[in-house]
Design goal:
The structure holds 2 protein chains of 2 kinds. By secondary structure, chain A is an alpha/beta fold. Chain A is 27% helix and 20% strand. Chain B folds into 4 domains: 3-231, Thiamin diphosphate (ThDP)-binding fold, Pyr/PP domains (Rossmann fold), CATH 3.40.50; 238-335, Rossmann fold (3-Layer(aba) Sandwich), CATH 3.40.50.920; 364-527, Thiamin diphosphate (ThDP)-binding fold, Pyr/PP domains (Rossmann fold), CATH 3.40.50; 542-600, Alpha-Beta Plaits. Classes of the chains: A alpha/beta, B alpha/beta.
Chain lengths: 296, 608
């Protein structure tokens, strides 16, 4: 860790809206201020509340100019969500930086858009082991489960704060005195326990990956043969052109043709979901999915 | 002056040093300056200024949400006429709305001091453009102060009132997103006692008819010259002595990046970017072989210096686009040959994913836009959370221009006569009150065949939940008269008005269908509150029966952040699961479910 007497120490805290990124940075900033350091804490609010990515830069030292941490100069990167940590990895000091992350994933609906058979969520593909071995010091913790076991999963950010405390030169008692100012009175005890648990976990080694840390899911195509032949049959005589299937097809692959009969115009997009078949008031549509035999 | 040394905490000063964001520091400056009337319309990144002003005692000052930025500036102007210091804050695009009042008031000048804080958004974190307020200040011929950190945000705000009264002018203090939202230790002072003045009956100054305006215009120009002269020696500008042949001229938050990247360079920091002190700048340029102007956004200072005939460089090295950072400065300085290019960056291998902002779990806007998509309407959008419906999976917003644009855009599309789809304007409650009412009158008056979908979620949601005239609460939380939207639109002449429940998709769709079929202007008002503000709504969560789910992905078309894929499969696609902590039980996914597999987690016991 950089000696804060010379140049600012940089801590970047990242996560998803609602996880408590700001609480972590407020605890740290207050602690630094109480030690007489100049501190700048910078975050951008606005869209963050809507489940988007959230980040907070905390810089402290005898003098701090830029409110943001230059790329490649973060002493510590604390990620409350795994993929958010990876997004900011280039901000970590390559040779001396410490990476602390909750290995729990929050997979947004945006990552679940591929409706092809066998498709996986487009989530960061690397395993925690692959990431941790790249950094100088790294902790892939299951902070959410640790906090849940202590009685409140919302204290996961405090578990990470405990790990952060091992990377900075402040006395444990100072951390413990600061945390209660930023958590609801009813959850002070749980948060102090969460801090202790995170600290203890991180003290057990410079590169650790929780045993529960998930790798990528085993994809459907790896466990089962996923080739299916989908046929959509539309009986022209029954279709009265009501447009229901066209409007409600999730993939928008149906159209009304010139004679106002529904037609599958984008067969490549059709996932064989049966929606049109179920919604058709005139039983004009049938969808059949036939597994294609595995090649010998 | 050494900023860091000045704020080094000492034993005695500890209580007067507080960690404040730029916005909080500005609010403190407003209070300390003895302001008695303050008004604003919320807008990121300026919103917290007025929220914070409203936390100072009501005996000290009146603070209010106004219906829009122009109204807020007119309120402040009225208070200035009446002889008390006044204040208005807004985001950069808010100044466009307020500019009509500002342009005239620049000619009129103040009785008691009037300051506008305008927050720019370089990088477009949460706006529709990245316009530079310094250009507006120059246009209006009003001084523009550009603080670099929280301490200056407070000090400059106080000083702006002195300048306003000394030179008989409104003053703009310009912040940016980064400054507004950075917290640092600020040395705070006490509230200044400013004696009230009384109204000055001076029609030649205060009534801006053509004859008077022609008298006032030369005064405006002389005023700028007098201010420029005063700025030659003002403490607002500062020269940091340094080594080297390259001098840097900078302003605002960019100064902190300059000090980060070039700690030893000679720097002229301009505290005001309009007007400019020519001799001070000329002397600085003469003392250095080469001068770089480093300013975020537009080349405002650079161009002015070039007109002065000074040899300076600037935008050939530093972009007009986006937000600056130490990296962008380092890159620009390397291109200019002032710094060595930085060695190759990080070698970490990782592939993150996109995480765009989304409508909240249970957001009542979700079903509104899903229905519009199903109806295949031509949808003009407006400014608010609901603009997020432009992206997959809702993909149902065709246009979004500016606050209040949706309705008149729809009128224009209808009048063009080329559109075959039904035309629907979507507008939130706060935006409707801000600038949606005149265009609705326009639509009725001109007999446009459009449907207006008023998305009333009972709050200004996008900016974090501020009250407005439709909520029945003031900024300070007092009860007040509440706008009745149904009666309002009826009074404007709308004949087809329906209240809709956006948690009932089938009925909502039928109501919209009927409104669209109505010839003329129809209004549908959805009436579910925002799930976050003023109270966070959390009902019993729903759950997906994994045995029944057929992975049809119908519910996933909502884009609800509580819905994600489970580890189970059906015919090659992931089944869906619901995150219990974020689900609020709105039941929209259950209404869409094709296999009836979404049910409440716990069946409520009757009578409870």
């Amino acid at each position: 860790m950089t000696n804060p007497v010379q140049v600012p120490t940089n801590v970047l805290i990242v996560g998803v809206g609602g996880q408590g990124v700001i609480m972590v940075s407020k605890v740290l900033a207050t602690l630094c201020q109480n030690h007489g350091y100049a501190v700048k804490q910078s975050e951008v609010h606005g869209m963050a509340k809507r489940g988007g990515a959230v980040f907070s830069h905390v810089r402290f030292g005898p003098q701090v100019w830029s409110p943001t941490i230059p790329e490649g100069e973060a002493d510590v990167l604390v990620a409350l969500e795994w993929a958010e940590g990876l997004r900011w990895l280039s901000f970590l000091k390559p040779d001396t930086g410490t990476f602390i992350a909750d290995c729990q994933r929050i997979v947004p609906p945006f990552a679940c858009r591929n409706r092809g058979r066998g498709a996986e969520a487009s989530y960061a593909p690397q395993t925690p082991e692959e990431i941790i071995q790249q950094v100088h010091a790294g902790y892939a913790m299951d902070a959410t489960t640790m906090a849940t076991n202590l009685g409140n999963l919302r204290a996961a950010n405090t578990v990470l704060l405990g790990a952060l405390s091992t990377a900075l030169d402040f006395a444990v008692d100072d951390w413990l005195a600061t945390i209660p100012q930023f958590v609801p009175p009813a959850s002070i005890d749980i948060n102090l326990a969460a801090f202790a648990a995170g600290r203890e976990w991180a003290l057990a080694g410079e590169k650790r990956v929780d045993a529960n840390a998930e790798g990528p899911h085993v994809s459907y195509t790896e466990i089962r043969h996923a080739q299916v032949d989908t046929v959509v049959e539309i009986v022209e005589e029954r279709c009265k052109g009501c447009d229901i299937c066209v409007k409600l097809c999730p993939e928008r692959c149906l159209r009304l043709n010139d004679s106002l009969v529904a037609e599958l115009v984008l067969p490549d997009l059709c996932t064989g979901c049966h929606m049109c078949e179920w919604l058709c008031p005139d039983f004009a549509i049938s969808v059949t999915n036939t597994p294609v035999p595995e090649p010998a | 002056m050494n900023l860091a040394a000045a704020r080094k905490p000492t034993e005695t000063a500890a209580r007067t040093n507080r960690p404040l964001t730029g916005n909080e520091a500005i609010a403190r400056g407003v209070w300390e300056a003895g302001v008695k009337v303050a008004a604003a319309y919320p807008g990121t990144p300026s919103t917290e200024i007025m929220e914070e002003v409203g936390r100072y005692p009501a005996e000290d000052l009146h603070a209010q949400w106004s219906t829009n930025e122009k109204t807020s500036v007119d309120v402040a102007i009225g208070a200035s006429f009446a002889g008390v210091r006044s204040f208005a804050s807004m985001k950069h695009v808010g100044l466009n709305v307020a500019s009509d009042a500002l342009m005239s008031f620049s000619y009129i000048g103040v009785n008691a001091g009037l300051v506008l804080v305008v927050c720019d958004d370089p990088g477009i974190h949460s706006s529709q453009n990245e316009q530079d307020t310094r250009l507006f200040a120059r246009f209006a011929q009003v001084p523009c102060l550009d603080p670099a950190d929280g301490q200056e945000a407070l000090d400059y705000t106080r000083m702006a009132y002195e300048i306003s009264e000394k030179f008989d002018t409104p003053v703009i203090v310009r912040s940016t997103t980064r400054l507004s939202h950075t917290r640092s230790v600020v040395h705070v002072g006490e509230r200044q006692v400013v004696p009230d003045r009384s109204f000055i009956e001076s029609p030649a100054k205060n009534v801006i008819i053509p004859a008077h305006a022609r008298q006032r215009h030369p005064i405006v120009i002389e005023r700028a010259e007098a201010m420029a002269e005063w700025l030659e020696t003002s403490s607002l500008n500062r020269v940091d002595e340094g080594e080297g042949d390259v001098g840097i001229i900078t302003c605002g938050i960019t100064y902190t990046y300059v000090k980060e990247v070039l700690p030893g360079a000679p720097v002229l920091k301009l505290g005001a970017t309009f007007p400019l002190p020519e001799r001070l700048i000329g002397d600085f340029c003469a003392a250095h072989d080469r001068v770089l102007v480093i300013e975020e956004s537009e080349p405002v200072v650079e161009n002015a210096l070039k007109i002065m005939g000074l040899q300076v460089e600037g935008k050939e090295w530093f972009s007009r686009l986006g937000e600056f950072s130490p990296e962008t400065l380092r890159d620009g300085l390397a291109k200019a040959g002032v710094l060595q290019p930085k060695a190759a960056g990080s070698t970490f291998q990782s592939a993150p994913m996109v995480r765009p902002p989304v409508l909240c779990a249970g957001c009542p806007h979700t079903s509104c836009f899903m229905t519009l998509r199903a109806l295949d309407a031509r949808v003009t959008g407006d400014i608010g959370c609901y603009t997020l419906a432009v992206v997959e999976p809702l993909s149902s917003v065709d246009t979004c221009v500016a606050m209040g644009s949706s309705i008149a855009n729809a009128v224009g599309i209808a009048m063009a006569g080329t559109e075959t789809k039904p035309i629907v304007a979507t507008i939130g409650d706060s935006t409707f009150l801000h600038s949606g009412i005149p265009p609705l009158i326009d639509a009725v008056y001109n007999k446009a065949d459009i449907t207006v979908f008023l998305l009333d979620n009972h709050i200004t949601a996008m900016t974090g939940g501020q009250d407005h005239p439709g909520t029945g609460k003031t900024l300070r939380g007092e009860d007040t008269v509440q706008v009745d939207f149904v009666e309002l639109v009826k009074a404007l002449g709308v004949e087809h008005v329906t209240m809709a429940d956006s948690y009932d998709m089938a009925v909502l769709q039928q109501q919209l269908r009927e409104a669209i079929e109505f010839r003329g202007v129809s209004v549908v008002i959805s009436d579910r509150p925002c799930v976050l503000d003023p109270v966070k709504i959390k009902g019993p969560a729903l759950t997906v029966d994994q045995d029944k789910c057929v992975a049809c992905q119908s519910c996933m078309n909502l884009g609800c952040p509580a819905l994600t894929w489970s580890d189970e499969w059906f015919e090659g696609r992931h089944k869906v699961q619901i995150d219990q902590t974020s689900c609020i039980g709105c039941s929209l996914c259950a209404q869409l479910c094709t296999s009836d597999s979404i049910r409440p987690l716990e069946t409520p016991v009757a009578g409870e």
